[in-house]
Amino acid sequence: MVELLFEDIFVLMRLDPDGKKFDKVSRIEARSEQFDMFMQLDINTEIYPMHVGDKFTMVLAPTLNLDGTPDSGYFVQGNRKSLADKFEYVMHGKLYKISEDSSSGKNAKVEIYASFGGLLMMLKGDPSNAANFELDQRIFLLIRKV
Amino acid sequence: MAPVEEKLRCTKEPYIEDVGSRKIKSIRFTTLSSEEIRKSAEVQVWNNRIYGNDLQPVENGLLDRRMGSANKKIQCATCHGKFTECPGHFGYLKLTLPVFNVGYFSSILDILKCICKTCSRILLPEEDRREFLRKMRNPKADALQKNALLKKIRDKCKMFRCPRCGSSNGVVKKARTGLAIAQHFTKSVDESAEEIRSALSHKKDKQSFQAAHVITPGAAFALFKRMLDEDCEVLNLYDRPEKLIVTEIAVPPATIRPSGFVGFGRTSNEDSITSILKNIINTNSILREDLEGGAPASKCIDCWTHLQIQVVEYINSDSPSVPESKHRGLIQRLKGKQGRFRGNLSGKRVEYTGRTVISPDPNLKITEVAIPVLMALVLTYPERVSYYNIEKLRQCILNGPDKYPGANFVQKPDGSTMHLKYVNKKIVANDLKYGDIVERHLEDGDIVLFNRQPSLHRMSIMCHRARIMPWRTLRFNESVCNPYNADFDGDEMNLHVPQTEEARTEALMLMGVQNNLCTPKNGEILVASTQDFLTSSFLITRKDTFYDRATFSLMCSFMGDAMDSIDLPTPALIKPVELWTGKQLFSVLVRPNACTRVFLNLIVKEKIYTDNETMCPCDGYVYFRNSELISGQLGKVTLGNGNKDGLFSVLLRDYNSHAAASCMNRVAKLSARWIGNHGFSIGIDDVQPGEYLNQQKKKKIDEGYRECHEHISSYSKGQLTCEPGYNAAQTLELKITSVLNQIRTTAGNVCMNTLHWRNSPLIMSQCGSKGSAINISQMVACVGQQSVGGRRAPNGFIDRTLPHFPINSKTPAAKGFVANSFYTGLTATEFFFHTMGGREGLVDTAVKTAETGYMSRRLIKSLEDLSVHYDQTVRNASSGIVQFLYGDDGMDPAKMEGKDGIPLNLSQLFMKVMATCPHRVLDTLSPSEILQIMDDRLSKHDMSPEGGCSAAFKKLLTDFVNSRVVLMRNTRRALKLDEDHTEQKDISLTERIAANISGISSKQLQVFLDNCISRYHFKKVETGAAIGAIGAQSIGEPGTQMTLKTFHFAGVASMNVTLGVPRIREIINAAKNIKTPIITAKLLSDRDALSASIVKGSIEKTVLGEVAKAIQIVIKSHRPYISVKLDMGLIKALHMRISADSVQLSILNHPKIKLKPEHIRILRSDKLRIYAPEADKSQLQFSLHSLKAMLPKVIVKGIPTAERVVIDKTKQGIYKLFIEGTNLLAVMGTPGIDARNTKINHVIEVHETLGVEAARQSIIDEIHDTMRNHGMSIDKRHMMLLADVMTYKGEVLGITRFGIAKMKTSVLMLASFEKTAEHLFNASYSGREDKIDGVSECIIMGIPMRLGTGILKVKQRLEQIPDFKYVPGPVLNRSNI
After folding, report:
1. pLDDT attached to residue B1052
2. Is residue A1 a part of any domain in this protein?
């Protein structure tokens, strides 16, 4: 079985907080319900439109293989069954930075950064949620609206 | 040379010693005596006819066959050589009477001044003479010291009466007219002169007493002949002085003065020298006839003078004594740019070259150049036939000279050559043997040198590999435009083909494009992507470029001609559709497949970067991690030139030049093809302003105009408050200019914000490929203020710029503000102002090129022979040490990675190590462990000063590691962990996170430190490097880019400083008077405004007129006086401490006002009375008035040279003083000034007050500041070297002809620089010996210089030379079996 790195339901708070800069890509700001995580994510809205108030499940997984075999790093074509079948929007990328954010008072938060071919994700929350992550990890981001 | 001559047959061959090859070691300059001239000559020349009736040269004529051949038809009668073979032989021409040699004229004059005109002995008392002789003979004295001594001797030889024979000597002077020497007895103390004078005074018409006596060349010759050898030595004469006077002329060989017949006619066209000599022969024979025939003396003398003038013309036709010569004398042949020295000896014409128009080709590699087939047919390379190439060369020979790839010549080992056009090619091809040399056409992969003028730095000539291509232009990759400064608007470039294997290897290793990616000016990358490459990279890496599988694969194939294997990455978007992003394409570009072991790590902030690091909303934060583009849109900062931590720089430093070059090749190919498919152009809609922009612009302009009008009206009412140091009109200008500049800036900003992202000019300015925000806003919004000479448009008409405006109008429009954009079009007046600004720019460029060119030439001449030696010292050609360690650390400027010439960019390197060498969670170190490991590593040998590590680098490294430790502690504190300790066993969650965030493993630290240290040692400057020439180029080349804008603000608004080329010139020339001397003074109590103004008051030059309320003449009955009343209020306010007493003192000390203390009466502390000193009543009125005119100019306080003092307040509230003027010593001595932190920008003044070391530092700082003001960075090592060269003689020498003459000893070098003839004549006067060891001398002599690869000599034992056979080794030999 796949061991998921992170799973939560987010609510989209804001679309393009700094103004619309790109035609096809929008930056969303979302907050999760369960772990109270804050997320910024670039999404190709041309093929997967999103709106303020949307509620969606987001999963971060190290592999798409249902049996949990690790991702080889090479892309294999074919319509095998995979974790992606249950989701509507899947991206693949790399975790490139973990940093602490001590600006918000006593409880230091941890920020996790990932880049999906230039589409960036920033996940901020309690350090406990960051334990599974490692630098330079290849991760899949899967989204399904609920 | 003489095959005709029958060899003398002997029964026994005479023994001829084999002298082997000889090398010129030194040259001595001397004078020739008439005997020597006669001996070396083949023929006496006396016949004034050149050609006889049979059109053959006349015997004893100027073109006598024995002097060599003057044209192709004549064969030499001495050596029987043809025109091309015979080097020529001298003849001689005997003059009837001796004449002066112009070149030595001043020396002759000086000698005559020093000797007695009766007994030829030196005019010195015996003991003085001995003393001087002893000093002159001092073997340690060099030429410069001897010259100084000679000057001293000349000054001493002022005796009127000879100490030996007692006869009187007059003053020797050059006669007023012509070239003659006269002896005046007028001043000499002689009774007879007195007698004559008294006798003359009785005569009615006051005839002045003239007792001048002309010393004829003949008389001088006789005097010189009688001179003692010892006296000659005292006068620093190397040889007999009579040689300075011409009695015989050496007629130069006919080969150097060719003669030809015009058409079929009988008139010949003669060289200048021949014609002058012909005239001399004529005059000479007339003179002889006159003398022999007993013609009247006056006629003879006239003839003699005429002869003198013609001999002068022969030597120097530009001499003032020659009236308008049409000919070119000997000196004219030597001097000047086209002269022998600069035109033929220092620079020579070469074969195997080509030149044509250039054009771009992005499909070529950066190391390649495409050569047209037509050119390749002519350019050849002599290839030696061997087993490996014989078939290829046979084919070449068969193809012949007209078919590519062919060959032009075949050389056999016996030295014979065959032109393939005239022989049977088949036979030659069949006869080809190993060891023959075939001059084959250029082929792909051959090594050529490629160059574009002006060659301002060493990257202007680089080595490429040839690619033979059709059509007619030379082509190369656009990435290499930068070093050549080439564009394709019709530029032409040159190509040279090295002809030996040694030359090829050396060219490839030292001058190859790959090995010259970085400029030694400051280590920035020079060969990098430009223009369209940047634009397309920018567009490709946009966040919203997505490609499906087909497009992505196609584009991957673009970058390598579909020849490379490429690993397709996992698509960034997997669902709902597979899509790859443009950034992934760039990741592929950097690392196409897993076999390419390139792990690029870099962080660059692009122009569009705002904040939030990688999360920057504009995507301007470029982050590569292990060759994967994480974020950021690539632009000029990453890919372009002039950057130290861009993509190519990092590839070059972390990997090698090949990695960087192949990446550049891929970028070029991908970009060119991508943009060809994508399309990129500018249309009218790109420059159309939107509705919103129009409104905003109108609003801003209206606001600005209103503000300007307010200023103008307040100015005309006289209510404008002046800025410090300015008058009302200047203040108004200042205010209006700032308002108008504001308008353009805001209009530009609005314009940039409203344009659509697809706007082409916007894209270009954002990625940095072309144009700036100002250019766009000029097209779209508003052109803005036009300036001429840094000011608004000047008044070309009376009190107005153009007749379209009212007189004295100062409105924006009347003074050159252009409110329209280029899109809307300019009005007539606006257009006129715009052209005024444009013309200034054009004039500037034209002036600047000539000026900087000369500056570069001087710099090169003074620094050319400096190089690094094996002991790391920097020495000049005569092995004089200039620096003990180059640049204080012995680092190569071209290899510096950090800013300001720091060897390494540690943070980048650290990031790379962290990314490429990942740590496991378990093995992170605690801060104390880190410091421990670092200390251990730093105590090793290669980090010690003996191991070649500078203290600065050690400190840099320690500081960096410490800063990482601080970061680590911060993280741990934030995560509430023990700051100084990591638990190894218990791996808690937070511990893991902390490790992920800022943990360093021992492996990582080890790798990082080792990497840093080994790289540091790799960056040492190579022995033999011609750092002098490189330094000169690095300072000279930026000069060409500097706009000639002279004035610029320095800190304070009201202070102007000379900048740009004029300032650099001032510093380099070591000018005594500079345009804007400024002293920057720190204060002892620098936070106190009051003390600042007190110090200011005591420094600033204050004249009486400024502090006096009134200076008036009071006429009273008994004694009129001038009453001076001081303005005590003002004096108090300015803290000047002036009282009536101090004023009295300063008036008394004034040099022009000659008053005595009793003339000045102090009435009160602020009132004085000054009485005129004249007793004469009639003069009283005048003297009072002249006093009154002078009094206001009396300096009552301050330093006379301190014209103006301005107090500057920095943001931190620290007060400083800027003093316009000189006299650093007085300023430093002023109470309240912090003397140790007081500076002046005047190098000579620094030298005079603080000494030569301070002057050196001052030169470095001043050049650095000037360059920085123009946004140019130059490695400080170059400036150090320049400053050292200027100061290493113990005084500050300018890089001018005077300074260089003091720095260098070589006559040839000085002669090839400036004042050619002067240096040569002086050298032969004192018999200078010139060692051939400098760069210029070696080039002139054609000897390899002892610099660079020439610094070492290889000696080899020649007992047994191994036999090379041009046959392949056996296919099977023992080792294979």
Report:
1. 44
2. no
CATH code of the domain containing A16? 2.40.50.140
Give the integer Cα–Cα distance in Å for B1161 and B1155. 12
Contact B846, B852 (CB under 8 A): no
| Measured distance CA(B47)–CA(B94) in Å, rounded | 11
Chain B residues touching residue A95 (CB < 8 angstroms) = none
Cα separation, A2 vs A64, whole angstroms:
8
Peptide linkage before B454 cis (omega within 30 of 0): yes
Q: Are residues B539 and B500 in the same domain?
A: no
**Which of B23-37, B594-608, B1018-1032, B1180-1194 has the least mean pLDDT?**
B1180-1194
Burial of B959 (0-12, 13-18, 19+ CB in 10 A): exposed
**Domain extent for A99:** 6-145
Asked whether residue B881 is domain-assigned, the answer is no
Nearest to A75 among B568, B617, B618 (CB): B568
Judge residue B933's burial from the number of C-beta atoms within 10 Å of its C-beta, 0-12 exposed, 13-18 middle, 19 or more buried.
Answer: middle
H or E element at residue B1078? strand B1078-1083
* Number of helices followed by number of strands (H, E) in chain A: 0, 8
Band the pLDDT of B1049: cuts 50, 70, 90.
very low
DSSP string, B1246-1269: HHHHH-HHHHHHHHHHHHHHHHHH
Region of residue B497 (phi > 0: left; psi between -120 and 50: alpha; otherwise: beta):
beta
- Residue of B1255 and B202 predicted with greater confidence: B1255
For A105, nearest residue in chain B (alpha carbons): B974
Taking 50 as the threshold, does the pLDDT of residue B627 lie above it?
yes
Q: How many domains does chain B have?
A: 7
Is B888 part of a structural domain of the chain? no
Same domain, B663 and B694: no
Q: Is residue A54 part of a domain?
A: yes
Q: What is the CATH number of the domain that holds B576?
A: 1.10.274.100
Amino acid identity, residue B829? Answer: T
Instruction: For residue B571, give its domain range.
Output: 531-678
For the stretch B146-180, pLDDT in tens is: 888 888 888 887 777 777 787 777 788 887 776 77
- Chain A hits for B575, Cβ within 8 Å: 84, 87-90
Residue (of B1181, B1175, B1173) closest to B1155 by Cα position = B1173
B1308, B1340 Cβ separation under 8 angstroms: yes
For B836-893, the pLDDT digits (tens) are 988 888 888 888 888 889 999 999 999 999 999 998 899 988 888 999 999 888 899 9
Please judge whether A90 and B582 are an interchain contact, meaning their C-beta atoms are less than 8 angstroms apart.
no
pLDDT > 80? residue B773:
yes
Which residues in B lie closer than 8 A to residue A100 (C-beta atoms)? 971, 974-975, 993, 997
How far off is chain A from B687, nearest CA to CA, in Å? 21
3-state secondary structure B891-944: ECHHHCCCHHHCCCCHHHHHHHHHHHCCCCHHHECCHHHHHHHHHHHHCCHHHC
Q: Is the pLDDT at B1371 greater than 80, yes or no? A: no
Position B886 in a domain: no
Residue B1092 lies in a domain: no
Answer yes or no: do B796 and B913 share one domain. Answer: no
Cross-chain Cβ contact B975/A74 below 8 Å: no
CA B650 to chain centre: 29
Between chain A and chain B, how many beta carbons pairs sit less than 8 Å apart?
A: 138
* Whether residue B135 is found in the same domain as residue B239: yes
Average of per-residue pLDDT across A13-29: 87
Residues of chain B above pLDDT 70, percent: 93
Contact B388, B467 (CB under 8 A): no
Q: Residue A25 is nearest to which of B544, B568, B618, comparing CB atoms?
A: B544
pLDDT of residue B1051: 43
Q: How many domains does chain A have?
A: 1
Q: How confident is the model at residue B1084 (pLDDT cuts 50, 70, 90)?
A: confident
Residue A109: closest CA among A10, A52, A35, A59: A35
